Amino acid sequence: MQAVILAGGLGTRLRPMVSDVPKPLAPLDGRPFLDYLLASLERQGVTEAVIATGHLSAQIEAVIGTRRGRMRVRYAVEREPLGTGGALRNALSQIREFPAVALNGDTYVEIELSGMLAAHRKGRAGLTVAVREVADAGRFGRVIVEDTRIIGFEAGGASQPGMINCGVYLFDRNLLDDPSLPEKFSFEKDFLETRVAELRPLAYVASGYFIDIGVPEDYLRAQRELPSRCF
């Protein structure tokens, strides 16, 4: 299996704590956050990861290099911000094996990729989205699931429990082939949410550890929790 990691964001909310490196390199116990993601992918048999970079891309390449154990690492650099959708499409030019997995470079999810792949194939899905029940979905927005398929999304806001999008996707080769898509777009807002009825994404429920380091309080929590969970 091959993977795309979206690591090109500006990380503005985290800058008060991490200002000298891009967000995916935010240190946890002396180790960059991105390395935890790569280690998890390698353990699960991913053979190649393409890191989609933009902001401070040279720093990421210098720190991570071209291999992580048995896994090859390559880079798809955006010369100007393309949004998550544009960055993913740019990286797909280097992907040869499908279904492929895509994930966010600031989120760690304990998920069994082999199980997700089996569900994707059994459901004959073009797109599978990892979802998870959380106590407070207000920051992320809620995913509406019916009979294993995602049928809608609700904007975040009020503090309430619910199912959220974990930011891990399995998808087939032609997912972003539509020529009407602009060069720059959000995969979540402009593609997934607006085309949910057409896409009928399969929901794969994850129950393992989940953390998004995009805000200072969760970055501090990751510093306490993640190193003890990973090797």
| Low confidence ranges | none
* Strand tally: 14
Strand order of the largest sheet: 5-6-4-1-7-12-9-13
Overall morphology: globular
Largest sheet: 8 strands, mixed
Round the Cα radius of gyration to an integer and report it: 17 Å
- CATH architecture assignment name: Alpha-Beta Complex
Report how far the terminal alpha carbons are from each other.
21 Å
* CATH class categorisation: Alpha Beta
Give the helix/strand class: alpha/beta
Summed up, the domain count is 1
Mean pLDDT level = 91
Percent of residues in beta strands:
25-35%
Question: What's a quick, concise take on this entry?
Answer:
This protein is α/β, with parallel strands linked by helices.
Question: How does this model look, in words?
Answer:
This protein has helices at residues 33-43, 57-64, 83-92, 113-122, 187-192, 196-199, 216-229, and strands at 2-7, 27-28, 31-32, 48-53, 67-68, 71-77, 100-104, 107-109, 127-134, 142-146, 149-154, 162-171, 202-205, 210-212. The protein is α/β, with parallel strands linked by helices. The chain has one domain (2-229): Spore Coat Polysaccharide Biosynthesis Protein SpsA, Chain A. The strands form 4 sheets. The chain has an 8-stranded mixed sheet, with helices on both faces. The chain has a two-stranded antiparallel sheet with strand order 2-3. It has a two-stranded antiparallel ribbon with strand order 8-14. The longest helix is centred in the last third of the chain and has 14 residues, at 216-229. It is globular, with a radius of gyration of 17 Å.
